[in-house]
Amino acid sequence: MLRVGVVLPAHDESRHLAGVVAGLPEWVDRVLIVDDASTDDTLAVARGLEDERVRVIHHDVNTGVGGAMRSGYRAALAETCDVVVKMDGDGQMDAAELLVLLRPIRLGMAEYAKGNRFRQTGRPPDMPRHRWFGNVMLSFLTKVASGYWHVFDPQCGFTAVTASSLRRLNLDAVARDYFFENDMLIRLNVIDARVVDVSTAALYGAEQSGLHVHRILWTFPFRLLRGFAWRFVKRHVVNDFGLIAVLSLAGAAATLFGVAFGVYHWVESAATGNVATAGTVMIAVVPLILGAQMLLQALSLEVQGSSGAEETRILARMEDSDEDC
Known about the structure:
Blueprint: E1 4-10, H1 17-22, E2 30-36, H2 42-47, E3 54-59, H3 64-78, E4 83-86, H4 98-106, E5 112-116, H5 129-146, E6 159-162, H6 163-168, H7 180-190, E7 195-199, H8 213-238, H9 243-272, H10 278-304, H11 309-324
Parallel strand pairs: 1-2, 1-4, 2-3, 5-7
Antiparallel strand pairs: 4-6, 5-6
């Protein structure tokens, strides 16, 4: 039987925290509340909970959701938990879905399971439109950056990860702010962890999200680009120099050569009035076409090899069968 720990990062969640803990099923072995320098009564509420499973971790300085999860993950490993679940302290996750979230890990189908609030209904009816739009944009960019092309809704904070995977990650390097969930996917891909999507609900009430669309649309794309570059080098060059690396590097070199050569001679032709010869044009076009084809082939191979894709499809069929019953 797996020993399950639930980490609740909490910042100014005094109104919701007790209800979240009360809703956790009895089979959860450990509840780790990380009070991230709250300015309200969150710490007092957490310490006043009469639940022997609860352990409270307090931060004197706010470290962000990622910083809180670093502390929670380390504490869960120290408590010898086999699986660590992340739930937000604002009550937006349904504890009744914990079994569904943990099912792929219990069945040995994944090392990381995450909620997907869009699979069954598209945009959840209670989800604000601006949050839905930001999530759709981020989902595609995160697919590119992380290499997990079969996952969606990367900002869903309802996740479960095996302790063995956590031990392989450098937790000190994981993003401390709201980029945490995206960064986890990028880093999990480097260690070739299987990641699956699980259909979950989202409960929206009077709580306020600290994740603002205008902020993430300005800051996240650059961070995802940097994460993609880091992941590509670590995964496909350092850890396993294979066909994807060869096609990508050769394709990029050929494409850049074709563009540079073509632009140089186009500028020269415009300046001198001499029309470029057919041979000169071909020297620019052929590498450009071949390079683009190699890059597309490398992308196709990565999409096909997306770790956890088949498991996600199997789980989706299992969910459909459960609904039919």
